[in-house]
């Protein structure tokens, strides 16, 4: 099972909306997806149709070592989800501290998830440096950093390329080609947004996995608690996310082939009762 981590050097870039849209697009492309919400905001569930007052989760209970299989939820969007779970600031800090102190709390169940090569785990991680990302990144097949197409995000590119936004100066070199970037909310009506997107594309070259247009359909999809590809499949954002999913799939290991059927015994043409 390959692991895809969505990250961002700062909040407010639409990372969780993109995570939901990408999970749906990957599943629509024929891959089985498990979405793992590692962000204490616990918002990925809302993008996938779970009830607002449903506080069940996985990461928030990690100190109790829950069985991740028992925590899996099937969402109305049809995607398997491990929600973060309902918590407050003190609980979120305690969970982050526990993961930092004992990384195996998360690393061990993640290895168990990754044992199935037919599935993709898509992890929505907290913005900025985090204990969660430091544990997951070494196991990831791909880390996708999400930026806005604006001047502030453009200024963060050196932090992304060096790995400083991951909290470790050497993480960028350790990840190497596993670290790609996606531009979100590119506003074609804004000369500044287009210029920023073009500048980032020219600088990053093949490390730019894709760009997603600014589209009101994304906000409408969240209001309806659906991924944009399900809510408005003909929208520009849905098309861009589908293209991004195709780019991601090119970087991920292919799905495992189904096991070959066991050979059946063949009768001898001369002696039918003899099996060869």
Automatic annotation (TrEMBL):
Pro residues bias spans: 253-266
Residue ranges, annotated region (Disordered): 253-276
One Pfam short name: CBP_BcsQ
Coiled-coil region list: none
CDD domains listed in its UniProt record: ParAB_family
InterPro entries to which the protein is assigned, alphabetical: Cellulose_synthase_operon_BcsQ (IPR017746), DNA_Partitioning_ATPase (IPR050678), P-loop_NTPase (IPR027417)
Protein name: Cellulose synthase operon protein YhjQ
Organism: Neoroseomonas terrae
């Amino acid at each position: 099972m390959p692991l895809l981590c969505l990250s961002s050097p700062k909040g407010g870039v639409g990372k969780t909306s993109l995570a939901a849209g990408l999970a749906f697009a990957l599943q629509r492309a024929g891959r089985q997806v498990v979405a793992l919400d590692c962000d204490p905001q616990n918002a990925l569930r809302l993008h996938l149709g779970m009830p607002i007052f449903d506080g069940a989760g996985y990461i928030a209970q990690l100190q109790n070592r829950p069985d991740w299989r028992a925590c899996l939820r099937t969402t109305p969007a049809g995607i398997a989800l491990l929600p973060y779970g309902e918590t407050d600031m003190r609980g979120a800090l305690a969970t982050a501290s526990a993961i930092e102190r004992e990384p195996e709390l998360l690393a061990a169940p993640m290895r168990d998830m990754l044992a199935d090569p037919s599935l993709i785990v898509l992890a929505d991680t907290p913005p900025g440096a985090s204990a969660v990302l430091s544990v997951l990144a070494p196991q990831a097949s791909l880390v996708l950093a999400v930026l806005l197409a604006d001047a502030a995000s453009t200024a963060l590119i050196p932090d992304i390329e060096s790995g400083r936004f991951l909290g470790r100066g050497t993480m960028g070199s350790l990840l190497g080609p596993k670290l790609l970037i996606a531009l979100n909310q590119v506003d074609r009506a804004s000369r500044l947004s287009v210029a920023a997107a073009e500048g980032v594309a020219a600088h990053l070259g093949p490390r730019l996995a894709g760009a997603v247009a600014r589209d009101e359909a994304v906000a409408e999809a969240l209001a309806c608690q659906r991924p944009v590809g399900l809510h408005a499949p003909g929208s520009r954002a849905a098309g861009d996310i589908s293209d991004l999913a195709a780019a991601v799939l090119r970087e991920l290991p292919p799905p495992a082939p189904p096991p070959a059927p066991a050979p059946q015994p063949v009768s001898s043409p001369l002696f039918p009762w003899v099996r060869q």
